[in-house]
Design brief:
The complex is a heterotetramer of chains A (324), B (112), C (146) and D (377).
Chain A lengths: L1 H10 L4 H22 L15 H11 L10 H19 L16 H23 L2 H32 L4 H11 L7 H15 L11 H4 L9 H26 L12 H26 L5 H28 L1
Helix pairs in contact in A: 2-10, 2-11, 3-10, 4-5, 4-10, 5-6, 6-7, 6-8, 6-12, 8-12, 10-11
Chain B lengths: L1 H11 L25 E3 L9 H5 L5 E6 L2 E7 L8 H5 L5 E3 L14 E2 L1
Antiparallel strand pairs in B: 1-4, 2-3, 3-5
Chain D lengths: L7 E6 L11 E7 L2 E8 L7 H5 L4 H9 L6 H16 L5 H29 L3 H22 L8 E2 L2 E2 L5 H27 L1 H7 L7 H6 L4 H5 L7 H4 L20 H25 L16 E9 L2 E9 L5 E7 L1 H12 L13 H7 L17
Antiparallel strand pairs in D: 1-2, 2-3, 4-5, 6-7, 7-8
Classes of the chains: A mainly alpha (324), B alpha+beta (112), C alpha/beta (146), D alpha+beta (377).
Bound molecules: iron/sulfur cluster (8 copies).
One iron/sulfur cluster sits at the interface of chains C and D.
């Protein structure tokens, strides 16, 4: 019984299948809202309202011919997409969807999440580097530069949450918020803003879509990927989008917890989880819609000049607030 | 900031997209003078071959049918410039609003 | 494979290649992205990298200088791939097809002499609606054949 | 930056590249993210037009010349017609002159909006691009109504214009102009207030006044460097001597001031169209001219949306040109472009800036390809 239920949890809900489907849904929401902001319709004819569009894209790419450039470092080039997906799927298991804790939960899983984000960037670098052609190389270089900019603010803003609730465990942060109010209504409001900006960079979205800036370096580090590998990369990036929005919801908006009668928690909590993550996604998409891309040096300068001091300030504020 | 407000306004405004082709061709307001696929009034044509001589991209060939000489238009070369209509002394050539001329085969792209 | 054909027809990503066009066709191709026409409705993206694209959309007369590039880009694309010729220049050389006898010295008379073409969209330039019409016809072909 | 030569590598942009809608090869020499030098190869578009023009009659050439370029086809046909009319020594009817100005300015509006959209796209500002291109449709709809096609209009004819402007179209045009004016003013506000836009365009692609004159820049690129030069004002053709307008200049010398110059020019064009509709004289549209053109040379200057366009015709008395020669604005702007793309001292060019700088001269190479590399096998 236990084995069955944990297998179900791992693979179906709230495990791999759930997250993969969620990632498709998120891509759809993202594209639709982005289009609506531009007075367009966006995907429309694939399934009802174009809901199946991301799935069609995925299947099409899976079925396409898979090319590997001649001069690439084949081992790395071929394994990176798979690693990206695996990494994202694993780290997503710590997200609490139906209760205080996720499928796996341990002390220090917040650190694990941060490590996974950094690792993802390193995988991006490897992907670009192993392609051995100019655009991906430049994209990879930019990805690492970008990492220098937003990594520290990201960590510090998460640290703010950890300090506030006095724990480095996701479930503890969630339950602390359930009893003390959401993190966003406290000194973490600043942290939340910093977090949103930083994940926009981590996700490589406008205004920080520098490593795959189409107008400058074609598709950046992804330029040489095609077919199945591109499908996996796209999926990994969508999963990352889900993960980041969900992490923001978990850390700042109280995770899946909310008002619900005891007997309905099993349904209400996932619904709350969805609502909150989608809310974050909407904010992310609006940001994507209203900015132009900044240049890499401008991004790094911005991060060091404003984001990092602000995030230190935020940590200090939290500490003071804790002590009082 | 102004672009943010504009984006919010755009979310409320109706979409600017015309749902062509599934919404049908009537959605599009093609003006009367539009130069789409051409049409030939066979009775009016006197077979003078001026249109063939003036066509800048040799998209017209003169053939002979039971009534005599007449032009055939090849849409794969035609650039819808309207010179044939200008040149025709009897106004036998006119342009319709039909723009849906995409085809799988170059050989079928002609107006007889 | 039913699913494959369905997915292929629902998500044809386009690579736009200008082979020496006068820009007329190009701006109309770009215009199909814009709110009035919005080809993302059909799941179409304009992609920058040949490796990501399924449909090669060629505009303009094929000049001798660009021919090798065109073929190289076509070869870089992953199977299955399709080619659409947009504009009279691309289909046949258009106005450049009539230099005394045959095409101008620097222009190929038609894309079909170099690559297998799946759909032709005539016009100079074709209206964005006409390009959409061409794409829908291509999608129909993808669904029925291959 | 240190000049360790191992770090310099070549980054070819093009000939097929998403930032460029045309086949052109920019061979950048890049050091890290900085561009140190650039070599341009614009030969991919060479279609042999000038030669082809010698093989056609003047009637056919009109359409060939129109297809030198789709975006400013009216400027090209206008120049061609002026050459032919000039050799005939005939004036065209007054009404046709006004109509030509309307067509030309409508094209300028269309072209400048197109360019603004592309510039927004180059800096990754897609939402702005979409708004602009949505409004550009207004001008294209008017063009379609006015001339019969959206882009390649075949509006000008040798000796006048082909179509009249009905009162109905005039009304639509006036309404369209009001809408466009409102939108262009809004865009100006956006450009002047949006931080990211300024960050990406200010101080980028600098071309000082003396360099602009020395390297023979033309059009908005020149006027954004503070030089007051415009063929419409300096050498009036069509009805330009009768239609009042202001030559817009700016002293910024960078990509940002090129945006401002173009936006202001669009507003000027809107006013010119209004004036022309108001003052449109009655009369015939076309002065019929014989098909054979008297022998002689003729040269015209026309202010195309991108700058001064020069056409030269040598006729030998037959119905075909003896020689036809075109010098287009983008060609003149290439030397200044190279200047803008080279890092020098404190002025550094990032790879990320290359599309923006390139876009800032509003290049289109379809009219510029002058040569072809022939491999001797
Ligand atoms: S419209 Fe122009 S290109 Fe087409 S057949 Fe007539 S003259 Fe020839
Ligand atoms: S110019 Fe007119 S009358 Fe003469 S052949 Fe052509 S269509 Fe017939
Ligand atoms: S006007 Fe008469 S004589 Fe002159 S070209 Fe036309 S048909 Fe021939
Ligand atoms: S190259 Fe041949 S076809 Fe072209 S103009 Fe010269 S002779 Fe005519
Ligand atoms: S078909 Fe017409 S618009 Fe298209 S590239 Fe050729 S000349 Fe230009
Ligand atoms: S340089 Fe321009 S005008 Fe001259 S032949 Fe080449 S494309 Fe034609
Ligand atoms: S500069 Fe040349 S290519 Fe560009 S729009 Fe003008 S004529 Fe066309
Ligand atoms: S520089 Fe070369 S291409 Fe130019 S005119 Fe002289 S010989 Fe001809």
């Amino acid at each position: 019984m236990d084995v069955i239920s944990s297998t179900f949890q791992l693979f179906i809900f709230p495990g791999f299948l759930f997250f993969i489907l969620l990632s498709f849904l998120f891509e759809w929401v993202d594209r639709k809202l982005y289009a609506a902001m531009q007075r367009r319709i966006g995907p429309l004819y694939t399934g009802p309202l174009g809901l199946l569009q991301p799935i069609a894209d995925f299947i099409k790419l899976i079925k396409k011919e898979d090319l590997t450039p001649k001069y690439s470092d084949k081992k790395i080039f071929n394994s990176v997409p798979l690693l990206m997906c695996a990494l994202m799927l694993t780290v997503m298991l710590i997200l609490p969807v139906a209760g205080e804790s996720g499928v796996i939960s341990f002390t220090g899983d917040v650190i694990f999440a941060i490590a996974a984000m950094t690792l993802f960037c390193i995988l991006i670098f490897l992907a670009g580097f192993s392609s051995m052609s100019p655009y991906p190389l430049l994209g990879a270089e930019r990805a690492v530069l970008l990492l220098l900019g937003f990594e520290i603010p990201l960590m510090l803003s998460i640290a703010g949450c950890c300090i506030a609730s006095g724990s480095i465990e996701v479930s503890a942060i969630v339950s602390w918020q359930a009893s003390h109010g959401w993190n966003i209504f406290g000194p973490q409001l600043l942290g939340f803003a910093i977090f949103l900006v930083a994940i926009q960079a981590e996700l490589e979205r406008i205004p920080f879509d520098i490593p795959d800036a189409e107008q400058e370096i074609v598709a950046g580090w992804m330029t040489e990927y095609s077919g199945r590998k591109l499908a996996l990369i796209r999926m990994a990036r969508n999963l990352e989008l889900v993960f980041m929005s969900a992490l923001a919801a978990t850390l700042y908006l109280g995770g899946p917890m909310g008002l619900a009668p005891h007997w309905a928690e099993g349904i209400a909590f996932p619904v709350y989880f969805l609502l909150k993550t989608v809310a974050i996604l909407l904010i992310l998409t609006i940001i994507r819609g209203i900015f132009a891309r900044v240049r890499i040096d401008q991004m790094v300068a911005f991060a060091w000049r404003y984001l990092i001091p602000l995030s230190f300030l935020q940590v200090a504020l939290t500490l003071i607030w804790r002590l009082i | 900031m102004s672009i943010f407000l504009e984006a919010c306004r755009s979310l409320l405004k109706p979409k600017a997209t015309l749902r062509y082709p599934l919404g049908g061709k009537d959605l599009l307001q093609i003006p009367d003078g539009y130069r789409g696929k051409m049409a030939l009034k066979r009775e009016a044509c006197i077979g003078c071959t001026i249109c063939e001589k003036d066509c800048p991209s040799s998209a017209i060939t003169i053939i002979t049918d039971q009534k005599g000489k007449r032009p055939v238009f090849y849409l794969d070369r035609c650039m819808f410039c309207g010179q044939c209509k200008e040149s025709c002394p009897t106004k036998a050539i006119s342009f319709t609003k039909d723009f849906e001329n995409a085809s799988y085969d170059r050989k079928t792209m002609e107006v007889r | 494979m039913g699913v494959q054909r369905w997915a292929m027809g629902r998500s044809p990503w386009v690579l736009h290649f200008n082979t020496g066009s006068c820009n007329g066709c190009d701006i109309e191709v770009v215009a199909t992205l814009t709110p009035r026409y919005d080809i993302e409705r059909f799941g179409i993206f304009l992609k920058g990298s040949p490796r990501h694209a399924d449909v090669l959309m060629v505009t303009g007369p094929i000049t001798r200088q660009v021919k090798d590039r065109l073929i190289r880009v076509y070869e870089q694309m992953a199977e299955p791939k399709f080619v659409v010729a947009v504009g009279s220049c691309c289909i046949s050389g258009g106005v450049f097809s009539n230099c005394g006898k045959g095409a101008c010295y620097n222009v190929y008379a038609g894309l079909d002499s170099l690559l297998p073409v799946d759909a032709y969209v005539p016009g100079c330039p074709p209206k964005p609606e006409a390009i959409i019409d061409g794409i829908t016809k291509l999608v129909k072909k993808i669904k029925e054949e291959k | 930056m240190s000049s360790s030569y191992e770090r310099i590598f070549n980054l070819p942009l093009g000939p097929q590249h998403p930032a460029l809608k045309e086949p052109v090869l920019l061979d950048l020499k890049v050091e890290g993210e900085h561009v140190v030098d650039v070599a341009l190869d614009v030969s991919y578009n060479h279609r042999g037009m000038e030669k082809a023009a010698e093989y056609r009659t003047y009637v056919q050439d009109l359409y060939l010349i129109e297809r030198i370029c789709g975006i400013c086809n009216i400027a090209h046909t206008l120049s061609f017609c002026q050459c032919v009319e000039g050799l005939h020594g005939k004036e065209i009817p007054e009404r046709a002159k006004y109509l030509r100005v309307i067509a030309e300015e409508l094209e300028r509006i269309q072209s400048h909006l197109l360019w603004l959209g592309v510039a927004a796209h180059e800096i990754g500002f897609d939402t702005f691009f979409m708004y602009i291109w949505l409004d550009r449709e207004i001008s294209l709809d008017l063009m379609e109504e006015f001339a019969g096609n959206r882009i390649t209009t075949s509006y000008n004819a040798i000796g006048g214009v082909k179509r009249d402007m009905t009162p109905e179209v005039a009304n639509k045009m006036k309404k369209g102009m009001d809408k466009l004016e409102e939108r262009v003013k809004f865009y100006k506000k956006v450009v002047l207030s949006e931080r990211t836009v300024m960050k990406r365009t200010m101080g980028i692609g600098i071309l000082r006044r003396d360099a602009a004159i020395q390297l023979n820049a033309v059009g908005p690129t020149l006027r954004a460097s503070g030089v007051d030069m415009d063929a419409r004002a300096d050498d009036p053709y069509a009805a330009h001597s009768l239609v009042p307008f202001k030559v817009v200049t700016d002293d910024g010398c960078d990509a940002f001031s090129r945006i401002i110059v173009r936006l202001d020019e669009t507003l000027e064009s809107i006013n010119m169209i209004r004036y022309c509709i108001e003052k449109l004289p009655p009369g015939p549209l076309l002065q019929r001219l014989p098909r054979r053109v008297p022998a002689g040379d003729f040269l015209t200057r026309v202010e195309a949306p991108r700058g001064e366009l020069v056409h030269f015709l040598r006729a030998d008395g037959s119905d075909k040109p003896y020689r036809y020669k075109v010098k287009t604005p983008t060609f003149s702007n290439l030397a200044p472009l190279r200047e803008m793309l080279r890092s020098k001292g404190k002025y550094v060019v990032n790879v990320a800036d290359v599309p923006v700088i390139l876009a800032s001269i509003d290049p289109c190479f379809s009219c510029t390809s002058r040569n072809e590399v022939v491999k001797s096998s």
